[in-house]
Structures are given as C-alpha cells and as structure tokens.
Amino acid sequence: MKPHTTAMGLTFANPVGLAAGFDRSGQQAAALSELGFGHIEIGTIVAGQAAMIAAPRCGSRLGINIGSGRRGLDPQVIEDYATALRAAYDSADYVCANLSSPFAGRDGDSFGVDQLISRMKRDVEACAAQTGRRVPLLVKVEGGFKGSPLPAAIAATRHHGLDGLVLVSACLERIAAICQYLNGAAVISVGGIASGADISARLAAGASLVQIYTAFVRDGAIGLHRMLTELEAL
Length: 234
Ligand SMILES: Cc1cc2nc3c(=O)[nH]c(=O)nc-3n(C[C@H](O)[C@H](O)[C@H](O)COP(=O)(O)O)c2cc1C
Hints:
It is built from seven helices and ten strands. The chain is an alpha/beta fold. The model has no long low-confidence stretch (mean pLDDT 94). It binds flavin mononucleotide.
C-alpha cells in the first residue's frame, strides 16, 4: 500500500495519526512527529488555554482539537468553541471540534449541536477570507450503535458541508454507513486500532485516515512502526 495519502485537500506522509489527549498543549508535537506519525492532533484545548498554543512546525500534519472548559452546549459554550477556533486557526492544518468528551456533559446529540456547527462553519469561512488560507473543519463524535439514528452532529456535518469527522467507533459496518452518508467528507477513524489489519479495515470501510491513542501508550514508537510495516505489507 502506498504510504502517502490525501484527505481534506492535504497530503499526509501516512494515514496514521496520534489522537487528541496525548499532547494537550502541543509542546511535544515536534518530538512526536519525529516518531513517524502522519499527523498529530493536539488538544483538547479550551478557550482560556488557546493563547498558549505554541505553533509547532513539524514534519507531521497538525490537527488542533478544540473544546470548552464548561459543561453542556449553551450559547456561552458555543462562544468558547469560537474563541478556541480563532486562536487555533493560524497554527492548524485542520481544526476539530470535540463533542466526544464524556466529562463535558455534551455529545453529538446535545441540544445546540446544529448552532455550534453552523457557527463554526461561518467562523472558518471568515478566517479563510481574512487569511487567504482555508483550514479544514471537522467534528469529533461517537459514532453511535449499528442501526440507531445518526447523531445530530453527523447530520449537521453533512448539512453544513464540513470537511469531515473524527469518528470514534470500532464497528466497521457503522463506519462504512457513516462514510457513505457523508458523501465525500473525510472520516478519520479512531477507537480500538492496534494493528496494520485494523488500519486497513478502517480504510476499506471508507475512512481516509486513522488515529491511535491506547496502542501508542502501550507499545510506543515500536508499535507505530510495526503497524505501518504491517499496513505496507498488506
Ligand atoms: C487518557 C485519555 C485522554 C484523552 N483525552 C482526550 C482529549 O483531550 N480530547 C479528545 O478529543 N480525546 C481524548 N481522548 C480520546 C482519544 O483521543 C481517542 O479518541 C480514544 O482513546 C479512542 O482511541 P484508542 O482506542 O486508540 O485509545 C483521550 C483518551 C484517553 C485514554
């Protein structure tokens, strides 16, 4: 399999990224990039911390995962996401709004999801007009169960024409159904990936990229290289 891959109009050295939460501030991004990830998603950063993002220029693509330190999804929380988005914009290759934190009291079906996504879409367009650079916008969301209605955030991703989803799910059928539903928007698949065969199956289901967290914590750079070697051999 060719290691280079494209998604959201960007080229990635390989399809495997580091999921959000490992490097919340971005301070380790340059060092992590040396390990061979195709992308690193830093964060989740919240409004108050956003000014602290060092703009790490590194070999890997840099995603910035944004959120709010408050619970729920009321208008103030939407403002927090908008503040974090503006702070992240210049440093990011893509921005991902996190709706997958079980501690935040919000998810892909929270009341206010559509307002959040339409607001961020407008803000990204405004930043693009200001800077002349269009940064892809994604939402990170739990995929839900096979056969259950799609979370509102996934419908809103399609409706508002976002660039894609970071989709938390290990169910191949569900991933395939969501990729098909999105009709061209990129899917970054995360959750339970531990081998080259897992990566290959997610890509075959329609994902453009994948991310790992637990497998990296467990097996480190050696595990990442093993997965990439397995993938190339498939
Ligand atoms: C300790 C820990 C912290 C995490 N922190 C974040 C976070 O800040 N933002 C986020 O979007 N996801 C966070 N995640 C979720 C991961 O990015 C990933 O979606 C999840 O662990 C599933 O992938 P895995 O099965 O490879 O671990 C965290 C996960 C763990 C285990």
